[in-house]
Design goal:
Order of helices and strands: HHEHEEEEHEEEE
Strand order of the largest sheet: 1-2-3-7-8-9-6
Radius of gyration: 17 Å
CATH superfamily: Hotdog Thioesterase
Number of helices: 4
Shape: globular
Distance between the termini: 39 Å
CATH architecture: Roll
Number of domains: 1
Largest sheet: 7 strands, antiparallel
Number of strands: 9
């Protein structure tokens, strides 16, 4: 069965359903799950978009309350297949790091879009979407592995800004998973891994 990037798979899991059913939130599919002719985002839009890898993916955040508000924190929910194991039933550590990095990047992308919407509302920009550019790049990512991430289950990856300084954004993230009670029980949502990263936007006209 093909992956379904919608909220439906997460509504069938009690602990994720409770988190995405809060009032006044935005639920969307990350743009990085959409294939592009440039091959951009092909890792998450194609290679890791299969029944045995990242089956479903959505991003959730509170609806901004004012025209100038940025989005300080988001949650990306993912249902995992069993084709990325490092040990039996355990997600490979390199994939865990990729999920942290990706969720941080989604936070960046959501805010680029948000800033464009605000600018359009003030008459400073035009168009429904921001101008396509290089975006930001990961300058460093430090990962702390706390406990194994079970494959074949769902995870919540929470990403938030620590601070922003011009072209630099310092971002933290955590991979969380329900343990102890199974997907159909209450269990307990715990932190399995955390990351600290610096993202940098290239200078205008700069070279990679």
């Amino acid at each position: 069965m093909a992956p379904s990037d919608s909220k439906d798979p997460f509504l069938r899991i009690p602990w994720t359903a409770a988190l995405i059913s809060a009032p006044n939130i935005v639920i969307r599919v990350p743009d990085s799950r959409r294939p592009k002719s440039t091959n951009e985002d092909s890792l998450f839009a194609e290679t890791l978009k299969t029944p045995s890898t990242l089956r479903s993916c959505i991003t959730v955040y509170p609806r901004p309350s004012s025209g100038d508000a940025s989005i300080p924190q988001i949650s990306t929910f993912i249902t995992l297949g069993t084709g990325m194991d490092g040990h039996p039933g355990i997600l490979h550590g390199g994939v865990v790091a990729s999920l942290l990095d990706e969720a941080m990047g989604v936070l960046q992308s959501v805010n680029v879009e948000r800033e464009h919407i605000v600018a359009v509302g003030k008459g400073f920009a035009e168009g429904e979407s921001p101008t396509v550019g290089l975006g930001s790049f990961t300058a460093f990512l430090n990962v702390k592995y706390v406990r194994p991430v079970r494959s074949g289950a769902a995870v919540q990856v929470v990403a938030w800004y620590v601070r922003r300084e011009g072209r630099k954004s310092f971002v933290n993230a955590e991979v969380r998973q329900n343990v102890g009670g199974g997907e159909d029980d209450s269990g307990e949502v715990v932190v399995c891994a955390s990351g600290e990263a610096l993202f940098v936007v290239p200078r205008e006209g700069g070279r990679l």
